Amino acid sequence: MNRFATVRQIAAAIHSGEVNARKVIENTLEVLNREDRNIHSVTHILTHEALTQADAIDALRASGATLPPLAGVPFGVKDLFDVTGHVTTAGSIVLRNNPPAQQDAVVVQRLKAAGAIPVATLNMDEFAYGFATENAHYGVTFNPRDTTRMAGGSSGGSAAAVAAGFLPFTLGSDTNGSIRVPAALCGVWGLKSTLGRLPCEGAYPFSSSLDVVGHFSNTLDDLITTFHVMDNTFPDPEPAFAALRIARLGGWFATNLSGPYRNALDKVCAELAVRHTVELPEVATARAASFLITAAEGGNLHLPRLRKQAAEYDPATSDRLLAGAMLPADTYLRAQRFRRWFRAQVHALFRDEADVLIAPAVMCEAPRRDEASVTVNGKNLSARANLGLYTQPLSLPGLPVLAVPLRNPGGLPLGLQLVAAPDREASLFAVARQLERSGLSGYSSSTKD
């Protein structure tokens, strides 16, 4: 199979007998072992389990039985998903002495039931706290489009493995942008579904009231197909594109953009005939509230362990977790009260003005790893802390957000956020299909478009 073969292509080839599942998995494992050293996206390779599952699929086909829809399709999981028989390390050495997982995370169970095969766990910021995938224990993940550049985080290993063509889809998680940021920087599709729509059971938590599990792929069709498997429901019908009210987010989301990003967004809005711009209220406060809730929930989750094992954490992680644990309870409660108010304002906007909102995912192309800064309000600030400028506020109301890779001939990837009301993922897919038809979305499988 072609290294950049899609989910649908792989499944079709196995169903038809063109190739067997074991061969697909052997080829995938060979690529990971040979080529991942160039980008460091993988933390553990699941060789024995993957080959065992592949053999079971081949035996099923040999018996004449009907194969499940994703039979033999390899995938990887962010290193915070439970995989039976393996210790879930969440990008840290702190958990290395925990007992192995007794069962797979629920979304992994659903994918395996559909025939998909997990082949690797993938690198991340320690305990999902960061936008860089700079991991003190497992190394830094490089951007496959340009290895001098950041892959983003915290699901950087998942995005990079897809962008490099190692895997057709991967699992990640998103609390404040951990799917959307690396999807944008690496030029792949990524979905943060509605808060609570996909089960988080078996995914190591970061911020329990904001965490969302999601995934990456190189094609929209693959993203949609695997989403419906994880959702475990029949697909919602996609609305007609012409029936959707689409608006551009202005104000906060129109400042600090690089020239290429501004031009790309203008092209998208022109192609979609978007003439309406809306602004969300108190966006700076929304970003701060999201940050405070994350810090407080993450800090209190880790505080008992930090009291005993602080030296085993990456200092950059432990310092932020400790600071979050020290936040006064009143600060956390005020942030949650603001969250309820902000959510009501956003819901009113979707009711009265728009079905889908368009916003940038990040403010610039992937920063260099040796100069990891971004420009915000004329100042050079840490990329690791500020790449979520446009994603953090949109996490607060629990909305579904689709990260769309935009074509940028001769340049690095650019990423768009399409945002809808809760449980309206189908509207996002309809707009994304229109962008795909127009030729504005998608990123080539090479480092140059």
TrEMBL record:
Superkingdom classification of source: Bacteria
Record domain Amidase: where: 24-428
One Pfam family this sequence matches: Amidase
Family matches, as InterPro entries: Amidase, Amidase_dom, AS_sf, Carboxybiuret_hydro_AtzE
Name of this chain's protein: AtzE family amidohydrolase
Protein's organism: Acetobacter conturbans
